[in-house]
Amino acid sequence: MDDTEKSREAPGAGDDEPGGLPGDENDGPEQAGADSSGAPHRRPSYVFLGVVAAVVLALDVGTKAWAELALSASDGNAPPVVVLIDRTLSLALAYNEGGAWGLFQSADATIRRPFFLVVSLLAIGFIVSLYRKLLPTQWALRWGLPLVLGGALGNLSDRVARSGVVDFILYRADWVGTMNEWIGYVVSDWTKTEYWPTFNVADIAICVGVGLMAVDMLISHRVQPSSGGADGAGGQRGESHPSGPTQSVPPPESSTEPSQLATTTDS
Fold this sequence. Notes:
- The protein is α+β, with helices and mostly antiparallel strands.
- It has a domain at 46-224.
- Helix content is 53%, strand content 9%.
- The protein is built from seven helices and four strands.
- It has helices at residues 2-9, 46-70, 109-131, 139-161, 174-186, 201-239, 257-266, and strands at residues 82-85, 89-96, 165-172, 195-199.
- A four-stranded antiparallel beta sheet has the order 1-2-3-4.
- Helix 2 packs across helix 4 (139-161), helix 3 runs antiparallel to helix 4 and helix 4 (139-161) runs antiparallel to helix 6.
- The longest helix has 39 residues, at 201-239.
- The model is unreliable at 12-33, 225-246 and 258-265 (pLDDT under 50).
C-alpha cells in the first residue's frame, strides 16, 4: 500500500514546483508598458510636430505676403494674373472671409469671425492632444497631424491679422465643371464653373494631412484582423503552458493509472 500511495501522488507532484506558478510567464513586457513583441512604445516627440508645423506655417505666411505684394492691383489697374499652365493653373489674389468653398461668407462678421476662431483653436488643441497618443506604426498620422496643424495656424493667423484668408492659387479643369454641374442639380443656387475655389499653401497642407489621416484609418482596419489573430494565437500558446490554473489537473491518460496500480497491488 505504501508503494501504491506514492505512485498515486507521482502524477501531480510537479504541479507545486516554483516554475509552475500561474502568471509567472505573463510578467514582463506588459507590466513595463511594452507591446506583445517586448519592444517599448515610443511616443512621437512634440519636436517633430513643431518643426513640420513651423515649416508649413512659414511657407504659407511667406507666399501670402508675396501674393499681396505681387498680385495686388496698382494705379487703378485690374489685379494681375500670373499664368503658370495655360488654362489649368494660375495665380490671382483673392480674400476669403468664409470657410472652405466660401461657406458662411455672407454671415455677419460679428458671428462669422468668432466662430472660425473657436473652431480653429479647438482643432489645434485636438491635434496636439492626439499626437502624443500615436503609436510608432502610425506613420501616416505622424505626418498628417503636423501638416494639418501648420495649415490651421496659417489660416488662423489670417483671420486674426486680416479680415479674411489670403488665397492666390487658381486651378481650372473640365472635371471641376462637370462636378459643379452635378452639384447644381441638388443645390439650386450653386455656381457652375470650371474653376476650383482659390486656395493657398495652408489649404494644400490641410488636404494632404487629411488624406494621410484617411490612409491611417484604412491601414488600421487592415491591421486589426492580423493583430487579433496574433493575439488569439498567443492566447492558445498561453493555454499550453503549465502555469495556467487548469494545468494542475492530470491529463486524461493518467486517469487509468490508479486502477492499474490497484490491480498490481492486489495481485
